[in-house]
Amino acid sequence: MEYVSFEGLRLDGRRANETRRVRHAFGVDDRADGSARFEMGNTIAQATVEGPKERRMGPPEEGESERCRVEATYASSAFSAEGVRAARKTDRRAKEHSSVLTEALQNAVMGDLMPRCAVHVTVNVLCDDGGARAASVNAATLALIDAGVPMRDILSAVTVGYLDGETLVDLNKTEERGRGPELLTCAMLGEAAADYESREIVGEQLDRGKTTADVFDSMHDLALAGTRVVGEYMRRAAVERTRGLASSRALEKF
Predict the structure, then answer these.
(1) Is residue 134 part of a domain?
(2) Mean pLDDT of successive 10-residue segments in the chain (254 residues)?
(3) Count of domains observed in the chain
(4) On the CB side of 82, how many CA atoms lie within 13 Å of its CA?
(5) Inside any domain, residue 16
């Protein structure tokens, strides 16, 4: 299958460095302390947050930290993918990504401001058309913002693949089935729009085969550019959400 045409267009009409259209929604679950839905193309991930809540701690052990502890669970709905078995909580890949997601969110949350507390994040993929793991990171970030959990910065993620000698950002399901090398990158947005060296990468995972150093560098650079695009969208969404809450609460006060 030809994944990139002679004109440089992918199967869905995007260029190699173009991400899919992203959308979001806050407050999608009234029962949770915070919740959000994030869409990347046709991929939909929904996240809920419980906490921060005081965690039960016995006598402190030597070296034990009192920083807020973040735990994340990742799973896919049975109807999320067509023609293949959807990932469940017991699947190896789901457990593996739960660990990656937990570590990334732990680095993003300002745990020192919430000592002896715990935050639990649950992410469920409702539709998987590629990039589900990246969408889960973005949904979890917005859900934490909705819950009022203090964060060091906006955490965003994209996947990058290498097919037909081209480096492609934000893979869809057809491109994922090409079985080329795939890189998941989670990075803090940072302040400087173009200074990638100052960005803090909190998680990076390479799947499906080995690559040369040059190919990996091109995937890494494109991933940072992709997380920048998605992260700036998420920052605008967070600012609009904060302004909306401030406005509604001011009106309620009077």
Answers:
(1) yes
(2) 83 91 93 94 95 70 70 82 50 85 92 88 93 95 93 94 90 89 88 56 82 90 93 93 78 54
(3) 1
(4) 5
(5) no
